[in-house]
Design goal:
Helix 2 packs antiparallel against helix 3. The chain is rod-shaped. By secondary structure, it is an all-alpha fold. The chain has helices at residues 2-7, 13-81, 88-109. The longest helix is centred in the middle third of the chain and has 69 residues, at 13-81. The chain starts with a helix and ends with a helix. It has one domain (2-109). The chain crosses the membrane at residues 52-74, 86-108. Keywords: Membrane, Transmembrane, Transmembrane helix.
């Protein structure tokens, strides 16, 4: 008979179950707040480092595309006028794009 009574749920009904759920939820929230307080500086430093690298990579992508498009413009202009294409701007633009890809691979590898 005791075994049968132990299998039944606790008395108190829905209200007691709800109060127990709220107590567990509050304790979970307290634990998470303590955890975040201890680790917030680490998360901020990590976010700032990643955002700096991503901003640097995006800037290099912009500069690389700008130099490449300027190289295309100068090459077309020089080719039409003198028949001599300019490759220095292409090299600079491609170099910036390679550095940007290197920075992005460094950021996303971690």
């Amino acid at each position: 008979m005791d075994e049968r009574h132990s299998k039944h749920r606790k008395k108190g009904g829905l209200k007691a179950t709800f109060e127990e759920f709220i107590a567990k939820l509050v304790s979970y929230a307290e634990v998470m707040v303590i955890y975040l307080q201890k680790n917030i500086q680490f998360y901020v430093q990590k976010f700032v480092r990643k955002s700096v690298w991503v901003f640097t990579a995006l800037t290099l992508i912009f500069l690389g595309l700008m130099y490449t498009s300027y190289g295309i413009f100068l090459s077309i202009q020089k080719f039409i006028s003198a028949g001599d294409p300019i490759l220095a701007s292409f090299g600079t633009g491609i170099g910036f794009l390679l550095f940007a890809i290197l920075f992005l691979s460094f950021v996303f590898r971690k």
